[in-house]
Amino acid sequence: MRGAVLAWVAIASPGDVAKERDVVEDSIYRWNQSHSSDRGVVFLSLRWERDVVPVIGSGPAQAIINQEIIRRSDVLIGFFGSRVGTAALGSVSGTVSEIEEAQSNGVTPHVFFSTKAIPRHGFDPAQFAALESYRESLRSQGLLGEFGSREQLRDLVGRCLTSEADRLKDGSWSLGAKIALRFRAVRDSGARVVQLSMRNVGGSRVEGLVVSSLRCGGRDLFSPSLGRLMTIEPSHEATLSVTKAPPDEPLTVGFRVHDGALVVMDSMLVR
């Protein structure tokens, strides 16, 4: 594997499915072991109980989790047992808040519900009713997953990661629900010239797009001519010519996008 796309997977769930959280993390590990080498994508898990730094004075706990975990993630896997969780940040639960935060950041969540028999001990009818109400509210937004065993959960996670790997490998990048770019490299091996294509696949005009860095196989290929300001209308693309690029190595493209008053900086591995 010459180069790999690194993607962060947020694991979101209420506390009654704690063991299933471990199953999801193990599923991510197994997917990497089986598929990362040939697909060129590596998934790393994010869990609030391990990856959030305890801090006082920075706002509600759920806001910190959303900031430290959800806004870093490229993929979100959310799942429920018989509880929806504790209300947080105006949402019916912290898990729901995380799913909503992911959606607002342009990440499409994968959400599963357990069909296992509900244990009598600790069962909360109000929690279950709230969970069913939330589940019903999601039906119009897409397809939900169901699992009756840990093996079924593993299978769901694996299939979702494979789908996400295909999306990530096609060079897709998004900011919110409307701004989305697809990066593609067209190589001329004889002339060692790469045409770097940036296509607007979202629903809004992309303004203030600037390529700020370009590396390939550890080499710096950036030149001032690449750093021009670009505006791309929906369904249109901008193309830059990159010279002296090795024909088989992926490009690491750093770029900036203006979103109103914000300037968002990111990078993309382009094959």
CATH class category of the largest domain: Alpha Beta
Q: Percent of residues in helical segments?
A: 25-40%
Percentage of residues in DSSP E strands? 25-35%
Please tell me what the overall shape is. elongated
The CATH architecture of the largest domain: 3-Layer(aba) Sandwich
Number of helices: 6
Number of domains: 2
The name of the CATH superfamily of the largest domain reads: Toll/interleukin-1 receptor homology (TIR) domain
The neighbouring-strand order within the major sheet is: 2-1-3-4-5
N-to-C CA distance:
12 Å
Average pLDDT, rounded to a whole number, is 87
Low-confidence segments: none
Radius of gyration of CA atoms, rounded to a whole number: 21 Å
- CATH topological fold name of the largest domain: Rossmann fold
Order of helices and strands: EHEHHEHEHEHEEEEEEEEE
Description:
This protein has two domains: 5-169, Toll/interleukin-1 receptor homology (TIR) domain (Rossmann fold), CATH 3.40.50.10140; 173-270, Sandwich (Immunoglobulin-like). It has helices at 18-39, 48-51, 61-68, 94-104, 125-138, 150-169, and strands spanning 5-12, 41-46, 75-80, 110-114, 145-147, 172-175, 179-188, 193-200, 206-216, 219-220, 230-232, 237-243, 251-259, 262-270. The protein has six helices and 14 strands. It starts with a strand and ends with a strand. The strands form three sheets. Strands 2-1-3-4-5 form a five-stranded parallel β-sheet, with helices on both faces. Strands 9, 10, 11, 13 and 14 form a five-stranded antiparallel β-sheet that branches. It has a four-stranded antiparallel β-sheet with strand order 6-7-8-12. Helix 1 (18-39) packs parallel to helix 6 (150-169). The longest helix has 22 residues, at 18-39. By secondary structure, the chain is α/β, with parallel strands linked by helices.
